[in-house]
Design a protein that fits this description.
Blueprint lengths: L2 H6 L7 H9 L3 E5 L2 E5 L2 E10 L2 E8 H5 L7 E6 L4 E6 L4 E3 L16 E3 L2 H11 L5 H32 L9 H9 L3 E5 L6 E6 L4 E6 L6 E3 L6 E6 L6 E2 L3 E9 L2 E13 L8 E13 L4 E9 L3 E7 L12 H4 L1 E3 L4 H6 L7 H7 L5 H10 L3 H6 L3 H8 L14 H5 L3 H9 L4 H13 L5 H9 L8 H4 L4 H15 L3 H17 L7 H4 L4 H12 L2 H13 L3 H12 L1 E2 L3 E4 L4 H11 L8 H8 L3 E7 L8 E5 L5 E5 L9 H18 L2 H24 L13 H8 L3 H6 L1
Parallel strand pairs: 3-8, 9-13, 15-20
Antiparallel strand pairs: 1-2, 3-4, 4-5, 5-6, 6-7, 9-10, 10-11, 12-13, 14-16, 15-16, 16-17, 17-18, 18-19, 21-22, 22-23, 23-24, 24-25
Length: about 725
């Protein structure tokens, strides 16, 4: 519609009767659950005329009319022949394309009625061809126009999709049977409870009665007839249930290339009807490839809350409610279409060989990885489907097949070892063990390598024990311990390494076979942990010992020099790292959690000793950080505090310092001088950085001032 022409059409004004009705329509106030509302009998008055083939409708607000205003708030124009409509906003002097119900109306109109005279009502109804006239007829017409516009917009988007989907060939005739028997891998044997040892049950895999022996409800087994893995279900105990969703793939040729169709498979079993389950085969995704392997993804779902249909997606599974791992996307692939595809479309991809080499695959993911790493074709065609699968899943990133040369060289092994790997169906861990075998110029037993790969054990996982026992011996040891503990070998290796670390902390000779090869690993580990004060303490002590290996020896060396006792107090020197950790945990200060104190012990800048009461020699009281000459840098008790009782103990500390001076060597005095200089430098740096105490009673004070006030110089005690 030409808008300049519309603006020139005759103006419409309210009739005298409408003005009179508006003046007499007093507003009412009503209480609602959300508050008060104002309403009129009629909130909006309407007039209409058909001018030059166009329906013009003027809308007047009651409040304006009650004040004598005769100008409309909106003027609506509708051209039935073209389906166009637009609205002139009188107040804003601008055109609007919104439907009548989406215009900006005062709140009172929401609760009030509309008025139009009977002639106008019928005119709108006749012109628009709607069931109703008046406001309802206008809204009915506008909604229908919007639906048609939306449908046309959707059609322009979906038409190319429908053309693409129209090229997809029909399902093979035997697809439902294949999907049920081969695509789905979850099968059951239903049986009636009986005391007889020999009985029969119905196998869903071979769909007939088969012999069974001593079944247990929900336990797993193998059908003696079809050799499928099954789960036993007692008919009297099994209720309604369904299998887990499984994937299945169908690859077909179509006009422009090939398509990979992904299906979701499931069975529903109802109580008493186990021989006739309901089968669900839902096709959820299609990935179309042209001859250059450019792909288009489609999924079946709700399109813009409009209809359920095939929808084009920019990425795989876009718009789907579930996003699963690589394992979740793997499924069996229908094989009868593969020979023809291998000769043409999939000839240089290795996809068909990959499907033949693996029980379950994800063909879409394979092609995605193949386009980035074409060497995957060489792997699968050489018989290494398992290795290819592990690379595709992204489990291993240290293998690359770039460069020239034969495949064995690319894999880092020789031809003989590559042949062994193929014969054993080896994956990445098998390959890693063959690389280690080659580096060590030895030969491992293939059965051991299969065992290690099955358990997910790489060469580096066993480096901690390989200097004590050979691979065959280590594998036999792990198998035995699996039987004793019921735990996986991979988990046991962590326990084993833990045990040897703790045994070393306990000064056990870990080179002796009776120590490094205990009869029951778990019991030996638990006993060692108990002796060491708990697993967390043992772990922390081991970490500290790795960083600062001389601490235990230093503690042993300084014990006679700094140990001291009187009637009321005594100074105790820790025997090993665990004693220091335990002291920090009990008193709740940072001694056990910070490496700086252990680093100072390692460099002999300072040592840790314990102040105890003579009547409770094993109970932590105060922890002292001392310099080699006995200077006390810090004295802290529970919560990193100093209590009033420390004043009484200070005289004991001075007497201890005097005694220590008699025991010092020239090396001790040299270390003490160096320690004093480091302490002064530290205080200067702390003042320069203005570091403060953030917690406790001393919060807000400069850390250097606190440490300096805590200092008890040994030389002052010697002079007193």
């Amino acid at each position: 519609m030409e808008k300049k022409r519309l603006r020139k059409l005759r103006k419409l004004y309210p009739t005298k009767r409408m003005m009179q009705m508006a003046r007499e329509d007093a507003p009412k106030v009503e209480n609602r659950s959300w508050g008060k509302i104002k309403k009129y009998r009629y909130g909006i008055y309407m007039r209409c005329q058909i001018l030059e083939g166009i329906l013009k409708v003027a809308f007047f607000l009651t409040e304006h009319m009650r004040l004598g205003a005769e100008s409309p708030v909106y003027e609506l124009f509708i051209h039935k022949d073209t389906g166009e409509f637009c609205t002139w906003d009188v107040a804003e002097a601008k055109w609007r394309t919104a439907k009548a119900d989406m215009l900006d109306w005062p709140e009172y109109t929401w609760h009030s009625g509309f008025y139009i005279n009977p002639e106008g009502y019928r005119s709108i109804q006749k012109y628009l061809g709607t069931k109703c006239g008046g406001y309802k007829g206008i809204l009915e017409y506008q909604q229908e126009v919007r639906k048609k516009e939306l449908k046309e917009r959707y059609r322009r988007e979906t038409e190319p999709w429908d053309l693409a989907m129209g090229q997809i060939p029909p399902l093979p005739k035997d697809w439902p049977q294949w999907a049920d028997k081969q695509g789905m891998t979850q099968h059951y044997i239903f049986y009636d409870y009986s005391r007889k040892k020999e009985k029969t049950g119905y196998c869903t895999g071979c769909e007939r009665e088969v012999p069974i022996r001593e079944p247990r409800h929900n336990s797993f087994g193998i059908c003696k007839r079809c050799r499928r893995k099954i789960q036993y279900k007692a008919k009297g105990r099994a209720e309604n249930f369904s299998t887990d969703k499984e994937r299945a793939y169908l690859i077909q040729r179509y006009e422009e290339g090939f398509v990979i169709r992904e299906f979701s498979l499931r069975r529903y079993y109802r109580k008493g009807e186990y021989e006739t389950p309901e089968r669900g085969f839902h096709e959820r995704e299609r990935t179309l490839y042209d001859e250059d392997f450019n792909s288009q993804n489609f999924y079946y779902g709700m399109y813009k809350q409009h209809e359920v249909r095939w929808i084009k997606a920019y990425t795989r599974s876009e718009g789907l409610a579930w996003l699963e791992s690589y394992d979740g996307y793997e499924g069996k692939t229908y094989r009868r279409t593969l020979p023809g595809l291998r000769e043409r479309e999939l000839r240089k991809t290795g996809l068909v060989e990959y499907i033949y080499g693996c029980e379950k695959t994800d063909p879409v993911l394979y092609l995605k990885k193949f386009l980035r790493n074409p060497e995957l074709e060489q792997l699968v065609k050489a018989g290494f489907a398992r290795l290819a699968k592990e690379i595709i899943r992204g489990k291993f990133r240290d293998i690359r097949l770039d460069g020239g040369g034969e495949l064995a060289k690319k894999l880092g092994v020789d031809r003989a070892r590559m042949k062994r790997m193929r014969e054993n169906g080896g994956g990445m861990r098998f390959l890693c063990w063959l690389r280690r075998e080659k580096a060590e110029d030895t030969v491992y037993d293939d059965a051991d390598l299969r065992y290690l790969e099955e358990k997910g054990i790489a060469p580096e996982d066993m480096d901690f024990i390989r200097n004590r026992m050979g691979l065959k011996k280590a594998c036999n040891f792990l198998k035995k311990q699996e039987g004793l503990s019921g735990r996986n070998a991979k988990q046991l290796l962590s326990t084993y390494e833990d045990y040897l670390l703790i045994a070393g902390r306990l000064k056990m000779d870990t080179e002796m076979e009776i120590v490094y090869r205990p009869k029951d690993l778990k019991k030996a580990h638990d006993k060692a942990v108990e002796l060491c004060g708990g697993r967390n303490m043992a772990k922390r002590a081991g970490e500290i010992a790795d960083k600062f290996p001389d601490i235990d020896e230093i503690c042993e060396e300084i014990r006679k020099k700094y140990a001291y006792s009187e009637k009321k107090y005594l100074i105790v020197v820790p025997e090993r790292i665990e004693d220091i950790i335990r002291e920090g945990e009990i008193l709740g200060h940072c001694l056990h959690s910070s490496d700086r104190y252990f680093e100072r012990i390692q460099t002999r800048e300072s040592y840790i000793v314990f102040l105890r009461k003579a009547e409770e020699p094993d109970k932590p009281y105060y922890t002292l950080e001392i310099e080699p000459d006995g200077t006390a840098r810090q004295k802290r008790t529970a919560g990193d505090k100093q209590n009033a009782d420390l004043e009484e103990a200070k005289s004991f500390i001075r007497r201890w310092q005097q005694e220590v001076q008699k025991r010092l060597t020239e090396e001790d005095r040299r270390l003490a001088e160096k320690s004093s200089l480091l302490r002064i430098e530290e205080f200067q740096e702390l003042r320069k950085e203005k570091k403060k105490v953030w917690r406790g009673a001393l919060a807000g004070k400069l850390l250097a001032d606190v440490l300096e006030a805590d200092l008890m110089e040994a030389r002052e005690a010697a002079m007193s």
